[in-house]
Specification:
It is built from 11 helices and 11 strands. The strands form 3 sheets. Strands 6-7-5-10-11 form a 5-stranded mixed β-sheet, sandwiched between helices. Strands 2-1-4-3 form a 4-stranded antiparallel β-sheet. α1 runs antiparallel to α4. The N and C termini lie far apart (120 Å). It is of the alpha+beta class and 426 residues long. The protein has helices at residues 14-69, 73-84, 114-124, 150-174, 179-202, 215-250, 260-277, 291-298, 300-316, 342-355, 386-402; strands at 89-96, 101-106, 129-135, 138-147, 280-288, 323-328, 331-339, 360-361, 367-368, 372-379, 407-410.
C-alpha cells in the first residue's frame, strides 16, 4: 500500500500560483500603463512648454521693441530680466540689427538636482526660440530664448514616483483580488473608463455606461451618464454659439453680407485657383450715387433702408457661387468666379443698374431712386493680384461716377454709355 504523497514544498499551490500570476500581471500592466502615460504626459507637456516659450518670446519681443529701436541696453536688460525671471527660462538674448548682443539674461538661481535638470533639459526640452523684433515692418533685431526645463523635470519626477507608487499599491491589492471582484467591479469601471476615453478623445458624447450589478457602481454610472447628457447639451450650444460668432465676425450686421475681410480672403483663394487653372476672375466696385445726400438729409434710418435694399437687389442678380460684400459705408464689392467673358460681368452690371431703377420705400413712406456707379476689373487682364485688382476696379468705379453715375466702367476701356439695357447682350 502506497503512502499518501506529501505536498512538494518546492511547488506552489494553485492559490499561490493564481495569486503570483495575478500579482505579476497587475504589476506589469500598471507599470507599463504608468510608463506610457508618463511618456505621453512628457510629450504633451513638451508641446505645451514649447508653445509657452513662444508666448513668452512674443511678449519679450513686444516689450523690448522700443529699447531695441533706440538701442537702449539698460532698458532692454531690465525688461528682459523682469519677464524672464518670472518664467521657466534659462537664458534670453536680444540681438540688434547687426546681430550684436544688446541685452542678455541667464538664470543664476541654484536649485536642487541642478545637474539632473540640465541633463533632462538637453534630452526633452524644446529647442530654443528665435523671433525677429519688427518695428514698422522692418526687422530691428532678434530674440533667442532657451527654456529651463524645470516643469518637465518636476513632471518626470512626479510621474516616476507615481508609477512606483502605483506598482507598489497594485501589488498589495492584487493579492486580495478574486475573479468575482474582477468581474463585478473591474469590468464596470473599465467600461466607464472606456466611455470616458471615447468622450475625451473622440468627443463621443452619445456613449453611455451600461447598468452595473453593484449599487454604488450603478449609481456612479448613472451620474456619469447624467454628466454626459449635460456635456452633450453644452457641446451643441457651444457649436451653435461658435457658428453664430463666426458668422458675425465675417458678415455685416446691417445687410447680412460678407464683410471686407471675408471678401478679401475669398478673392485671394479665387485668384490662386484661377492662376492654377488658367481662369479669369472679375470684381466689381459699387458705390451709391446719392447715399450721402439721403443719409444726411433724411436720417440714418433712411440710409440703412437704402443699404439693405441695395444689398438685396444686388444679391438677387448674381449667379450661384458669386460673392457680394459690403466694404463699408455705401461701398459694395462683387466677385465673379469663374468668368468666361468680360461681357458676362458687364451684363450682370447692367442687370444691377436696371434693378436699381425701381424706387426704394423709406421708413417714412417716401419713395426714392438711388442709382449706383460700378467699376469692373478682371484678373489677369487688369492686375495679377488682389491689391492691383482692387485698385483697378476702384479707379473704374470713380470713372463711372465722373461720367454722371448710374453707369458702369471697365478698367482699361474708354467706357460704356450711361446705361445699356439687358437686351443689348442677347
Amino acid at each position: 500500500m502506497k503512502k499518501n504523497a506529501r505536498p512538494d514544498s518546492n511547488r506552489p499551490t494553485l492559490r499561490q500560483a493564481l495569486r503570483r500570476l495575478h500579482f505579476a500581471v497587475t504589476l506589469f500592466a500598471v507599470g507599463l500603463a504608468g510608463v506610457v502615460m508618463t511618456v505621453m504626459g512628457v510629450v504633451a507637456l513638451r508641446a505645451y512648454t514649447d508653445h509657452h516659450q513662444k508666448l513668452i518670446a512674443r511678449s519679450i519681443v513686444y516689450t523690448v521693441q522700443a529699447a531695441t529701436v533706440f538701442h537702449d541696453r539698460q532698458a532692454a536688460t531690465e525688461t528682459l530680466a523682469a519677464i524672464a525671471a518670472k518664467e521657466d527660462v534659462a537664458a534670453a538674448v536680444v540681438f540688434d540689427a547687426h546681430n550684436e548682443i544688446l541685452a542678455e539674461w541667464h538664470d543664476s538661481s541654484q536649485e536642487r538636482f541642478a545637474w539632473a535638470r540640465q541633463r533632462v533639459a538637453r534630452l526633452i526640452n524644446p529647442p530654443p526660440v528665435f523671433l525677429p523684433i519688427v518695428h514698422q515692418g522692418q526687422t530691428v533685431g532678434h530674440l533667442r530664448l532657451v527654456g529651463r526645463g524645470g516643469n518637465l523635470f518636476d513632471f518626470l519626477l512626479k510621474g516616476l514616483a507615481g508609477v512606483v507608487a502605483c506598482v507598489l499599491v497594485s501589488g498589495l491589492v492584487a493579492n486580495r483580488l478574486s475573479r468575482r471582484t474582477s468581474r463585478e467591479i473591474v469590468r464596470p469601471l473599465r467600461t466607464l473608463a472606456e466611455v470616458a476615453h471615447a468622450v475625451r478623445n473622440e468627443r463621443a458624447f452619445a456613449r453611455r455606461v451600461p447598468p452595473a450589478r453593484i449599487q454604488e457602481l450603478h449609481a456612479l454610472g448613472e451620474d456619469f451618464n447624467a454628466l454626459l447628457d449635460e456635456l452633450e447639451a453644452w457641446q451643441t450650444q457651444w457649436q451653435d454659439e461658435n457658428a453664430s460668432l463666426a458668422h458675425k465676425a465675417a458678415h455685416d450686421s446691417l445687410t447680412g453680407l460678407p464683410n471686407r475681410a471675408h471678401f478679401e480672403e475669398a478673392l485671394d483663394r479665387a485668384i490662386h485657383d484661377a492662376a492654377v487653372l488658367d481662369r479669369r476672375v472679375a470684381i466689381m466696385f459699387l458705390d451709391s450715387d446719392r447715399f450721402k445726400e439721403i443719409n444726411d438729409g433724411m436720417g440714418h434710418a433712411a440710409g440703412d433702408a437704402v443699404l439693405i435694399n441695395i444689398a438685396a437687389r444686388v444679391r438677387g442678380q448674381l449667379r450661384e457661387g458669386d460673392v457680394v460684400a459690403r466694404l463699408g459705408g455705401d461701398e459694395f464689392a462683387i466677385m465673379l468666379s469663374p468668368l468666361r467673358e468680360l461681357s458676362d460681368a458687364q451684363r450682370i452690371a447692367d442687370d444691377i443698374l436696371l434693378g436699381m431703377r425701381a424706387p426704394i420705400r423709406l421708413p417714412n413712406g417716401e419713395d426714392i431712386v438711388c442709382s449706383l456707379s460700378i467699376g469692373i476689373a478682371v484678373f489677369p487682364d487688369h492686375a495679377d493680384n488682389a491689391g492691383g485688382l482692387f485698385d483697378a476696379a476702384d479707379s473704374a468705379m470713380y470713372h463711372a461716377k465722373r461720367r454722371g453715375g448710374a453707369t458702369q466702367s471697365t478698367a482699361g476701356l474708354p467706357g460704356r454709355p450711361a446705361f445699356q439695357p439687358y437686351t443689348a447682350y442677347n
